[in-house]
Amino acid sequence: MAPSKSDYSAQSISVLKGLEGVRKRPAMYIGSTDTRGLHHLVWEVVDNAVDEHLAGHAKKITVRLREDGGVEVTDDGRGIPVDLHPTEKIPAVEVALTALHAGGKFDQQAYAVSGGLHGVGVSVVNALSSRTEVEVTRGGARHAIAFERGPKVDDLTKLGTAKGSGTLVRFWPDAEVFETTVLDHDTVLQRLKETALLNAGLTIVLADERDGRSVTLSYKHGLKDFVEELLRGKDPLVPAIEVHDEREWEGHPVALDLAFTWSDGFHDDRLRSYVNIVRTADGGTHEEGFRRALTTTLNRFGRDTGALLKKDPNLTGEDVREGLVAVVSIKLPDPQFEGQTKGRLGSTVARSYVEQVVAEALAVWLEKNKAKGRQIVKRAAVAAKARQAAKAARELTRRKGLLDTQSAGLPGKLADCTSRDPSETELYVVEGDSAGGSSKAARDRHTQAILPLRGKVLNVEKAQLTRVLENAEIQALVKAVGTGVGEAYDHDRLRYDKIILMADADVDGGHITTLLLTFFYRLCPKLIEKGHLYLAQPPLYQLRKGSKVAYAMSDPEREQLLKRDFKGVKNVEVQRFKGLGEMDADQLWATTMDPQRRTLLRVNIEDAAGADELFVLLMGNQTDPRREWIVSNAHFAQELDV
Ligand code: 0RA
Hints:
By secondary structure, this protein is α+β, with helices and mostly antiparallel strands. It has 4 domains: 10-217, 2-Layer Sandwich (Heat Shock Protein 90), CATH 3.30.565; 223-390, Ribosomal Protein S5, domain 2; 399-538 and 587-620, Rossmann fold, CATH 3.40.50; 541-576. 38% of the residues lie in helices and 22% in strands. It has 21 helices and 24 strands. The strands form 5 sheets. An 8-stranded mixed β-sheet has the order 5-4-3-6-2-1-7-8. Strands 17-16-18-19-23-24 form a 6-stranded mixed β-sheet, sandwiched between helices. A 5-stranded mixed β-sheet has the order 9-10-13-11-12, with helices on both faces. A hairpin with a 2-residue loop joins β9 (241-249) and β10 (252-262). α8 (285-305) crosses α11. The longest helix is centred in the middle third of the chain and has 31 residues, at 370-400. The radius of gyration is 33 Å and the shape is elongated.
């Protein structure tokens, strides 16, 4: 039978007063009583089991979400001690469940490096649960004890003999406390996955008995696997660089686990940081140390090896973080958290420690991987240039209130179409005056407008968007399109359904297309996002025998046509078009402009990450013909038969 309250010693009464306090002000202990606070209970119990893993014992943790709303967390660690607590004279497991911050587990010195310092304690979970049951297997026997809303309701009893060791905590979050007691599968899964990734060799099972879903999470390579996850299928520039360190720093036992690389797949950074296995969503001193080390070490390496030229400015933190994917996990005793959600590490020891260790390790890695290192530095330098150009272009747009179309009429060079229904119209942006001439002759003048741009004028240095905007050709383009650019962009003013860039399939044509795409991407990305920007696909070859004519976009296609459509035919006349200007109006119509027969590539920004990749690519020393980079960026330009 459960003892009545009067059975408790004076000490125990004060202990229970503590738990009453938790019930009165739950938010002080778990942040809130909404769904976040609810999930906090699970993290608390799981973190205790993870600590047992970090102490070198538990290998497997099972989290069961029960049909009746309860949660069960099992580990195969040593088991919470069941012997009598020396001063309290009650079983240690009872102390752990009823005393706020009780027991040796929470002794900072003993668990300095193995985490476990963050928790508010499993007693808080007990206080906020309608019922909590704990089963401990230890010393050849299985024991059980139970609590309700804090106080013990069943004394510790031996259930029988049992092999092995471990702890089971089963609790039912209290509906009197929480706004909701329904746990979210995905939220739990994500957190457990993160925990498994940070603890190589630990197996975590999530068994959701409410719908039968069961997931086993186990990662061999830990942080390397984590970086792999964060890459989400994008290729890394180099295999993840790993750093593992454990030492005494300014009198504190500290440890660092780190894995990082870069990817062209995106242009923000994907940096995750942790302190004692707890996520620091707002960063803090450990992240600062890491970033400083990256910036100073890469700048030094860049200067020493000439990857950074004399005229290049130093790389900034932002530059070296472009495309960075990193997981920083540190352990230190008594970490100080700051900010409203306590998501930022404030402890200053972490900054100098991480900076020092990363700077050393990265310098060693760079020494061994010089070519890759230069590539990393060069990439950051490109990012810097792109950023400067974009900033300058934005400022210019703002300064001039530039290019909002109300201010001026249509450009003189525009051969507009007669239709005023923007849903059926197309604007061909054509490089060169001669191509402009043949396309004007070829077009369907009801729906197709032609704007010739003079290539030479346009062929300005790529990274200089500012100069592009001052360019008369580009200003004509903006006026024809109608939307304005930058902050003045107004999608409803778009004058054509399709803006089609038509350039020669050679290096110069590629340059111009690259420039125009960069321009659209930076100054009217909406137009791309909404699917209005296209690339025409003029052919490279015409094959003819008598009245039989075929066109090929590439050398392989030409060979294929010769083998298939002209099989056995002698003396096929093969004409290579050096540029659009070499095609007559009929040829241009048949191959590139007739909506029934042409192929257009729709410029398609699938997601922001892909766009960033494109931008870096465009801003780099990318000089290949358009066709080549489109092929290698298939997610950007999608083939479409229109
Ligand atoms: C205190 C001391 C020892 C283990 C634990 C607590 C412990 C706590 C939890 C919570 C969930 N699972 C757990 N497993 C172990 C060490 C006792 C010893 O020296 O054997």
